[in-house]
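Quick review question:
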């Protein structure tokens, strides 16, 4: 394979910049710049020079011999002073070495996958960790990166292989008397795996919400104080407010970190009967987004009729503009801040309770693979119940379930998604 290099830290002025190299010529290339190499996995301060002997920088050099490195190949890192001029000079010197080329986005991580240092789920966890904005996203991504999903998949796979082996033993000795009926053990193995897969599948949607962010919609009639409340939650003037009904005509989104969760709060058009065509479009969008949201905050106006949207279990109902109704129970005001901190606590409590049901699997791809496994195992169970004459069909369904577990961690059927995954990585990762 080619030897690749790239800046692994963000461009721009910084105290330290890291240049990473990986491949068969990585150590030799660094030796050309540094004169000598520190011991494997030991850092050493070296004077870097170009091919003309011109001093480039004093850098901390680290080397990692394959396969004991992130990529599984010989790898080196140069920790430079972080000026743009220094980084440019070092990268220019590396580009002059014929055996090196600039890495593609995500190529270091792709090599880690190809060399068996990471499975595909861990690669996705790493991508999520790089993008993490909140504490819950960081914890979830780190759990996947540590191999938690791969460990589960391997445990499921081993049980399914055991069940398949028992069935195939009966196929091999179909013309002989088999002293032991294997179906009870096979059914026990299938049922235990299916139960765990169902729990994982159900939790995947919550995991996706932790990664992508929950949505909370503020809904109610016009002039109920929805936009003012959004501004209070956001701490800035995110939405236009006025005393005129129908000011908000589109969905306004504000993303925030709420008790460690990524949450997008939606300010929606006031719900009412109107002949205004544009306002009706906004009301339609408001209802559509509110129904799709994870949680709705209903701001009521005691003097107005019911709105065309019904709360569901877990939704929050409050009386808006409490600053104009000082004696109102369950009132909230974005103007004075009354009840705002209590609302934040209530929203956080609901969403954190749901987040507690998250699975290790975090993506739609994971859910699809898990559901394929469940479907195959349900069919296999029926075949096992139909007796030993159906063992061959049951074994084939078991193999399909095992392939689904392999797809979960990237052993099979993933070529079509690799480019999409690695395109999201930056250079040097």
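Suggested answer, residue by residue:
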């Amino acid at each position: 394979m080619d030897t690749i290099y790239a800046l692994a830290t963000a461009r721009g002025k910084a105290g330290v910049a890291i240049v990473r190299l990986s491949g068969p010529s990585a150590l030799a290339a660094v030796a050309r710049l540094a004169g000598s190499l520190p011991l494997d996995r030991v850092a050493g301060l070296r004077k870097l020079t170009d091919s003309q002997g011109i001093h480039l920088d004093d850098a901390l050099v680290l080397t990692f011999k394959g396969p004991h490195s992130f990529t599984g190949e010989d790898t080196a890192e140069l920790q430079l002073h972080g000026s743009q001029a220094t980084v440019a000079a070092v990268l220019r010197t590396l580009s002059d070495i014929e055996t090196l080329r600039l890495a593609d986005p995500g190529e270091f991580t792709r090599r880690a996958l190809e060399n068996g240092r990471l499975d595909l789920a861990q690669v996705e966890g790493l991508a999520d960790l790089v993008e993490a904005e909140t504490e819950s996203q960081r914890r979830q991504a780190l759990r996947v990166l540590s191999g938690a999903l791969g460990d589960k998949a391997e445990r499921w796979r081993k049980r399914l292989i055991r069940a398949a082996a028992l069935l195939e033993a009966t196929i091999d000795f179909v013309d002989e008397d088999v002293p032991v009926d294997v179906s009870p053990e096979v059914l026990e193995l299938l049922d235990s795996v299916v139960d765990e897969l169902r729990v994982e599948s159900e939790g995947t949607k919550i995991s996706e919400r932790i990664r992508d962010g929950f949505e909370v919609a503020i809904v109610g009639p016009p002039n109920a104080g929805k936009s003012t409340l959004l501004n209070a939650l956001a701490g800035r003037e995110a939405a236009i407010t006025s005393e005129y009904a129908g000011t908000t005509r589109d969905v306004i989104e504000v993303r925030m970190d709420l008790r460690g969760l990524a949450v997008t709060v939606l300010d929606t058009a006031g719900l009412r009967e109107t002949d205004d065509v544009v306002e009706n479009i906004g009301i339609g969008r408001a209802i559509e987004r509110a129904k799709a949201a994870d949680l709705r905050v209903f701001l009521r106006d005691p003097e107005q009729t019911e709105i065309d949207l019904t709360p569901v279990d877990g939704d929050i109902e409050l009386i808006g503009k409490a600053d104009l109704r000082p004696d109102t129970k369950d009132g909230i005001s974005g103007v004075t801040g009354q009840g705002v901190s209590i609302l934040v606590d209530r929203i956080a409590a609901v969403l954190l309770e749901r987040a507690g049901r998250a699975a290790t699997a975090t993506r739609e791809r994971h859910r699809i693979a898990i559901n394929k496994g469940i479907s195959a195992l349900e069919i296999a169970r029926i075949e096992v119940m139909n007796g030993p004459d159906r063992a061959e069909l049951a074994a084939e369904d078991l193999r399909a379930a095992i392939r689904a577990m392999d797809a979960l961690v990237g052993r099979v059927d993933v070529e079509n998604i690799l480019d999409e995954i690695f395109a999201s990585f930056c250079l040097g990762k």
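Why it works: Confidence is low (pLDDT under 50) at residues 241-247. The chain has 13 helices and eleven strands.
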